[in-house]
Amino acid sequence: MGCTNSSTGSNIGQSPDDAGRATDQRLQRDLESEKKKDKSVKKLLLLGPGNSGKSTFFKQLASIHNDGFSDENKTEATKPLYDSVLAQVKALITECRALHYDVSGYSRCQSKTLEAIRFFDDLPRDVEINEEIAKYLKIVWADSAIKEAFKDRTNLSVVDSAPYFFENIDRIAEVGYKPTEKDLLLVRTPTTGVTECAFAYNSNEFRLYDVGGQRSERTKWIHCFDAVLFDTNFSSIVFFFCIIVHPTSHIQITLPTTFPFSLDPSLLFIVIQLRACLSFFKRLRKQTKKVTAVLFVVSLSCYDQRLFEDVSVNAMHEALSLFEETCNSRWFRKTSMILFLNKSDLFGEKIKRRSLKVCFEDYDGPDKNFDAGALFTLL
Question: Which of 54-58, 112-116, 188-192, 222-226 has the least mean pLDDT?
């Protein structure tokens, strides 16, 4: 109320036009002030393929600079964490079979292991982890064939942090379980849309943006810098889209300004989805218009793995191709590029038992050598 009274008092004795101009000038000054403040913020765009560890990196920064995760964050994360853990054990069983460790007929498998596998085969989705689930999960994870399959996994649907959750399953199965900070950092939650985090370091203000790395999410941002999309009137796009999808539909759109509009109900969901997609594009385009640097994250340990979305594609080849595409984007010509080679610890373990030649046929360096392998990947 104090602000309102002050504003009203300052306009006493002024004509409506003078008062309006004074208000406009004040708003303009505020906008200029915000603009200058925004220019001083260093904007970092976090990019990379799925399962590269970039979202874990993002969550770590957010946790460090925002005093950890709130109780609300932990409560909201409980169900997705349950879903992720169960998805991992099911994926591991599937991976075991794909690697021809036929668990159901494997001579080393005990009857308890077979019973546990059948339990997970029949387990419905969207269930809370309880003591019974924990019991069967521990039986599966204790089997030597399952652990061997985890070491030799090639499909990214089985994530690197799975053992951590399997070994903490009793705690997760407790009634009233609330995820710890480490749980939240390690759980796989594929990024959808744009997530941002603001923080300060050494008197500098930063704003970090994380966007989805899975192919389904990547299609949203990899072409979002196409100027044509953002120079086109939204109603025109919707009109053109609807005509292609359903030429006989009854559509009434007054171009270029009408939205909302009337159309065949069968197209409503499609148009709503398109509108949400374009809204995403515009938001990301606005946020990343003046990016200070792109931090591109690649997992070193993915050199022998396949994409979750397309098992015919090597994950490292996909990552390097995406990095090249990002570097050559005209929108990043004047933007600093930072390549972050992540998961070096896992790479160090894996290179001891699997040659880099499974990914790079022209690699002629020594096998089981961390430095040589990492340097070749970088070059």
Answer: 222-226
Q: Do 210 and 46 form a contact (C-beta atoms < 8 A)?
A: yes
- Which amino acids are annotated as binding site for Mg(2+), given as ranges? 55, 191
- Spatial neighbors of 136 by CB under 8 A, at least 6 apart, are 115, 116, 119, 120
What class does CATH assign to 42-65+191-378?
Answer: alpha beta
Which residues are annotated binding-site positions for GTP?
A: 160-161, 185-191, 210-214, 342-345
- Evaluate whether 296 touches 48 at the Cβ level (below 8 Å): yes
Of the ranges 226-235, 277-286, 292-301, which is most confident?
292-301
Q: May I ask the CATH architecture of the domain 71-186? A: Orthogonal Bundle (1.10)
Q: What is the mean pLDDT of the segment spanning 168-190?
A: 91
Residue 76 parent element (H or E): helix 71-98
Rounded to whole angstroms, what are the CA distances from 107 to 6, 89, 114, 212, 251?
A: 84, 21, 11, 42, 64
Task: Give the three-class secondary structure for 379.
Answer: coil
Residues 244, 274 contacting (CB under 8 angstroms): no
Map out the domains of the chain as residue ranges. 42-65+191-378, 71-186
Task: Fill in the DSSP letter of residue 264.
Answer: -
Annotated binding site: 55, 160-161, 185-191, 210-214, 342-345
Per-residue pLDDT at 6? 40
Per-residue pLDDT, 277: 53
Give Cβ neighbours of residue 212 (< 8 Å, ≥ 6 apart). 50, 190, 191, 192, 193, 218, 220, 221
Least confident of 50-54, 128-132, 237-241, 264-268: 237-241
More confident residue, 308 or 62: 62
